[in-house]
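S1.2 Input.
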Amino acid sequence: MRWTNYFLHPADNRYYVFTFREEVHAERFELLLKEDAIPFERNENEFGVPRTHFNEALRHNHLLHADIRTPFIENKGLRWTMLIITGAMLLLALFGAFSSKAYGQQRDSKFGWELAVQGRVSVPFELAGVETQTFSGDGLTSNWNPLQSQSFGVRINNRHSSSWTFGTGILWIRKNYSVDIHYTNDTLGINTSDTIHLLRAMSYRIPFLAETRVELGKGYYITAAGGVGVEFVPSNIFQNSSTDGLIGTSEPPRDYDAKLGRRSWASFPFMAELGIQKEPIGENPGFYIGVFWSRSLGKDSGIINTWQSTNIALVTWEGVFSSTLAGIEMRILLE
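S1.3 Output.
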């Protein structure tokens, strides 16, 4: 399985191969290469580009795909619905920040709508399942190490009683990884270790949560929430690198890459939250500080690692894992 339309030439690692499904796209790519004086060889809809010109060719490849690719949400009605919902949440956040009255205060009912702006920091925490994922086979071993990650969003709750609320919102999530890639071949006397220091993935999550709270006094509460969400990943992530070395030694010159991608159009994480909340009073906003945990129901993420050196066939290994986040959350509660 190949997630990008470019890869290291399987027989000559001095070249990268770019491939296109449509003839018209290949023609446009050829024109871009010629305009930028990038040397290439073409065989039908495949292009061989020297490694010395890979970055320039990759830039043209990305710009071409940005122009021809279909939207992440192809259905126009659904796409506009998502944009309208997101825009409405942001408008509510701005309205709540600059208004002395909450939307819920405009209702005759004692209870109503509550609005919060939230930020999260996820940290590696083995006891919570935010831990290194290891994949190994055919002499190739990769360790996917979670790094500190960030999330920002808007939460809208509907309070049904003094103790219970049901909420939703939208959350922008950035997950960061470093990837250690080890390759060992006893027959050829090869033993290498390399690291891709940063691979970033982005997703959007719509949560559906039920929350209960216990009053401590003076406007403070202990809160606990649980629920599920729907998470969308706009695109797959790819990062490649290379290391110089000496041919014939245990560490020859080599190229390697890491790919992280979605396994379906959406995943469904289970979520739990626990924290302390101070209610807003009048024009003074409240706050929430707590911890959170989430884990996908099923293995939602797929990885591919590759390694190649001169005169050595491309080595590839694949794996899947469940995305997990845990860390600290802070919210500004707007009345």
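S1.4 Remarks. The chain has two domains: 1-69, 72-334.
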